[in-house]
Design goal:
The chain has 431 residues and is α/β, with parallel strands linked by helices. It is built from 13 helices and 15 strands. Helices cover 37% and strands 16% of the residues.
Length: 431
């Protein structure tokens, strides 16, 4: 048996206090295969969080492992100052899949950096430092992305290089519009957007929005809301940035990108991505129409963005996802899992709502009979599920507490049932 306490003490002595760890006794994951991982004590877990929605296809996927190994045996690094065949190949595939006309792709090393780049493009193109963002949002940990994050738990400073205006609409079942029907909810959110624009000075640069909010607890608006926003934005020349770091690559099942649930007025001007495309390798990026992407008038490079090794992983991973129709699997298995979770939740007073789409599900926990968030209950279920052999995630805004479920997209029906059984037992331990 390996004792995790010494490693935990070493972690605390050299890493920041604000670097969060799950569990009262944090675990060290040593290896994985398929939808399972093992810790240093040899315990096996069904992984329903995938390294924060990052292990998209499967742990130790042979196709990705082989591509990484072969590329590392040739050359590991060159930077963007040289032609890079894997980078061009992956950019071609992503541009074609993006739905954005005349698309250009720039690779980064993370979703934070991707959103930071999107903000640079939008503010430069529009000559404005004013940004619209959604309440309860999360877009990264850099100075600029923290300043547009509408979730105080992840926004450590109010100092900002940007002026941000926050808009209603991303949280369907809480807030001042929650009681409205979908069409009326959308109309009220559009009216709020118009009102916010009336408060801004001059032209705004962009609206940035997650189609389904990740850290915020897998909340989302009615389908079509961002398309309705687009009509307003277009009248003012304001760009739309769709943050697809968590919703991209078919995870929602119904669509390949989250923005496609809001597509009645066309695609976004800018799309950001990361996490799942690398299946654990460090890949982020930005897709934008050429006019926007090419608006920078100074030199720029990326030292590590577009690394030959990470790009080879991305090409192999995306190919596997498309060839095995993992979007379809997310729709089928995710639909069954959501039905099962709703049936379980009906027997657990602490579950206020089960929400989500595809293999992206959230269970909001409250003190029974109220709308008051219960983070202690969420922590207890997380621990109980871990004891039962299931890894989950947590999230939520300032007034919510949510268990997040986002397994690899190759999840089988049997594994979905197994995970639901463990989660049911963990939830019932609250009684």
């Amino acid at each position: 048996m390996t004792n995790p306490i010494p490693l935990h003490n070493r972690h605390r002595s050299v890493l920041p206090d604000w670097l969060a760890l799950y569990y009262d006794r944090p675990i060290e994951l040593t290896h994985g295969e398929g939808r399972h991982v093992w810790d240093a004590d040899g315990n096996r877990y069904l992984d329903f969080f995938g390294g924060i929605l990052t292990t998209m296809t499967a742990h130790a996927l042979p196709e990705v492992t082989k591509a990484v190994s072969e590329q590392a045996g040739r050359i590991i690094h060159s930077s963007t100052l040289y032609l890079n065949r894997p980078m061009v190949e992956l950019a071609e595939r992503i541009a074609a899949l993006s739905g954005i006309p005349e698309a250009r792709v720039f690779f980064t090393t993370s979703g934070t950096e991707a959103n930071d780049t999107a903000l640079l493009l939008a503010t430069t193109y529009r000559r404005s430092n004013q940004i619209l963002a959604m309440r309860n949002s999360y877009h990264g940990r850099s100075f600029s992305t923290v300043s547009i994050t509408g979730n105080r738990g992840w926004s450590p400073t109010s100092l900002s290089p940007l002026q941000t205006y926050y808009v209603h609409g991303a949280v369907r079942t809480r807030g001042p519009f929650a009681h409205l029907k979908d069409a009326d909810f959308t109309a009220a959110a559009v009216a709020d957007l118009e009102d916010v624009l009336g408060q801004a000075r001059g032209g705004l640069a962009a609206l940035i929005a997650e189609p389904i909010q990740g850290v915020g607890g897998f909340t989302s608006p009615p389908d079509g809301l961002y398309g309705a926003f687009r009509e307003v934005l277009d009248r003012h020349g304001i760009l739309w940035i769709s943050d697809e770091v968590q919703t991209g690559w078919g995870r929602t099942g119904d669509n390949f990108w989250g923005w496609q649930a809001h597509a009645q007025n066309g695609p976004p001007d800018i799309l950001t991505f990361a996490k799942g495309i690398g299946n654990g390798m460090s890949i982020g990026g930005v897709v934008a129409r050429a006019e926007v992407m090419n608006c920078l008038d100074s030199n720029s490079i990326s030292t590590f963005g577009g690394s030959p090794v990470t790009m080879a992983a991305g090409v192999a991973n995306l190919g596997y996802l498309l060839e095995h129709d993992l979007q379809g699997n997310a729709r089928r298995v995710g639909g069954l899992l959501l039905e099962r979770l709703r049936a379980i939740a009906a027997t657990v007073p602490a579950v206020r709502e089960v929400r989500g789409r595809g293999l992206m599900a959230g269970l909001e926990l409250t003190k029974p009979g109220t709308d008051q968030a219960d983070p202690d209950a969420a922590a207890a279920v997380l621990e109980a599920a871990r004891t039962g052999g299931l890894l989950l995630g947590k999230g939520g805004g300032h007034n919510t507490s949510v268990l997040r479920i986002a397994p690899p997209l190759s999840l089988t029906v049997a594994e979905a049932e197994e995970g639901a059984d463990i989660l049911a037992e963990a939830l019932h331990s609250l009684d």
